[in-house]
Write a structure and sequence with these properties.
Blueprint lengths: L1 H22 L8 E2 L1 E7 L2 E2 L4 E6 L11 E3 L5 E3 L9 E2 L1 E8 L27 E5 L4 E8 L1
Parallel strand pairs: 2-10
Antiparallel strand pairs: 1-7, 2-3, 2-6, 4-5, 4-8, 8-9
């Protein structure tokens, strides 16, 4: 009985601590702003392509890479910390990859663009995210 009670007490202590740790706001996270757009290859949606924003010369954005997966209609919504939360304010180089289905024993397939739009030093475009709603418009790749 003593073992069972001490196990229950230990579980109660652990459970009582969990909500405190999980519900505290993350003060180290930057505020994000909704950002969305469309990605087309020619005139067709590039469904499954991956859009990534890469910070340009901003120390506070180092290590943050807002990203999105293009939907069937060509639309995408950026995610930084949680799904569709947007991106922190700043200037970014926009890159795109479009993985083919994975090969056996691989998590990600090869980029059907073969890295052509994935180079941060030669991005598809440079975008600025600011406070409020951000529309990145329609991005057309050839």
């Amino acid at each position: 009985m003593t073992r069972m009670l001490s196990g229950c007490c230990a579980a109660a202590v652990v459970l009582s601590l969990m909500p405190t740790g999980c519900s505290r706001p993350r003060s180290d996270r930057l505020e994000t702003y909704p950002a969305s757009g469309f990605l087309l290859l020619g005139d067709k949606p590039a469904a499954g392509a991956q859009v990534q924003l890469n910070p340009v010369d901003d120390a506070k954005l180092v290590g943050l890479y807002p990203h999105a997966i293009v939907q069937r209609d060509g639309s995408f919504q950026l995610t930084t910390y949680k799904t569709h939360d947007g991106a922190p304010a700043g200037t970014y180089a926009l890159t795109v990859t479009w993985p083919l289905p994975p090969r056996p024993a691989r998590e990600v397939g090869p980029d059907r663009f073969q890295g052509r739009y994935a180079d941060r030093s030669r991005p598809v475009s440079q975008v600025r995210i600011g406070a409020g709603e951000n529309s990145l418009g329609t991005i057309r790749l050839e």
